[in-house]
Structure formats: C-alpha cells, structure tokens
Design goal:
Shape: globular
Structural class: alpha+beta
Largest sheet: 5 strands, antiparallel
Helix content: 25-40%
Radius of gyration: 18 Å
C-alpha cells in the first residue's frame, strides 16, 4: 500500500465495483468480488474472494482504514482447521493499538472486529500507512501481502484476474477506458458483457456514485 493515497484507493475500488456490476447481474451479486455500502461520513468497500478471505475498507473524510481476514493465517482467532490453537483476546488489542478512534468506532461491533488478521490505516489523504507489527515472524503477515493484491491498481491487473475468474477473454481497451474514468454508457457495457441488461447495470452504477 505504499505510495497510494485515500483518494487513489477510493477511485480504484469504485472502478472495480463498476466492473463487477457490469460482469454480474444483481441476482448473481454473490459472485462479485467487490461491493460497496454507504456509511456515515463515507463508504465501506468489501472485497471477498469467495474462499473465506476478505478485505473491508472504510473510506471517510478523515482517512482510509483496511481490515483484512485471511482464514489460513495463524492470526485467525476462530481456529478450526487453520488459525490459532486457542482464542487470544489480546491479539485484537495489539492489532488495533493506537488506531484512530474513528477506525475503532467502525469496528466496535464484535463480529466485525473478530474477523481480523491484520489492519492498517492512513490519515487524511497522505500515502503514509500505519500498521502494528504483531510478531517478528516473517512467515505470517496476517494475509496482508496476499490480500492487498486484490486491490487491482491497473486495467491490466484487473483483466488478468477477471479472465481467469470469469473464464472469458475480455476487451482490455474497454477496461482501460473505465480505469481512465470514462463515462459508463451502453457501448462500454455491451462491449465488456454483451449479455448484461444495460438499463439495470446503469441504474446500479448510478446508485453507487
């Protein structure tokens, strides 16, 4: 996450959400990797890879906050097949130590908080990110390196992922236009997914602006 600001992060996530809307109709929303919800003072993006791992990204007027959950990480407190051998409540105190009060308020719900294996944050619109180091073990970063790869900074990255995920050959020129901020119209939608109901897609896209 070095050298990326809150504004840049929000723009990337917004474009990824648009692309998911174009690729998957509302009735198949469970197949979308990126979804967004409006919250007080900002928005909440969720990236879910469908395999038990997720990123929850809060973007507000005051900063950006990322909470990651890698179910195979040793810091997964739910244990079972993967994760910690026993519940360690101190982990959450360590991982959220000195985090901005706004971030803590956003994860005060225990269910929201407990699904955490790493977290990081930036304040205002800087490219300086903060994170508490939980241990010196380089073998387990809480899934940070792996999960942050799901934040696809370029059209090329998104296409490489999407062609594998959807098992389709996609028009990268259309994806580049979307990443470059082009207005979404009938032509762009049909070129990317000719089966998509254009009116429904445009309505959904307008709802997340």
């Amino acid at each position: 996450m070095q050298y990326i600001t809150k504004t840049e992060l929000k723009e990337i996530l917004y474009k990824m959400t648009i692309l998911d809307i174009i690729m998957c109709p509302k009735e198949e929303e469970y197949l979308r990797i990126t979804t967004v919800q409006k919250i007080e003072n900002g928005c909440k993006y969720i990236i879910d890879n469908g395999s038990g791992d997720s990123l929850t990204i809060f973007i507000t007027a005051n900063g950006a906050y990322i909470k990651g959950f890698d179910h195979e990480s040793e810091w997964n407190q739910f244990g079972a097949q993967f994760g910690a051998d026993e519940w360690n409540e101190d982990f959450f105190e360590q991982v959220y130590k000195n985090a901005p009060s706004e971030f803590l308020a956003l994860v005060e719900n225990k269910e929201e908080r407990d699904e955490t294996t790493f977290c990081m944050w930036c304040v205002d619109d800087t490219d300086e990110w903060y994170q508490n180091e939980i241990s010196d073990d380089d073998d387990d970063d809480g899934g940070k390196e792996y999960l942050l790869e799901y934040i696809m900074k370029s059209a090329e990255e998104w296409c490489e992922w999407a062609e594998d995920y959807y098992e389709l050959e996609l028009d990268i020129d259309v994806v580049k236009k979307i990443y470059n901020g082009a207005s979404i119209d009938d032509e762009l939608i049909s070129k990317l997914n000719e089966k998509r109901n254009i009116e429904e897609a445009l309505q959904e896209i307008n709802e997340i602006k």
